[in-house]
Amino acid sequence: MELLGIKDKVLRREFTNTSKIITFDLLEPQTYNIRVIVDDNNNKRWDTGNFLEKVQPERVLYFPNEFKLRANWIQTEVFTIE
Question: What pTM does this model have?
Answer without folding.
Answer: 0.81
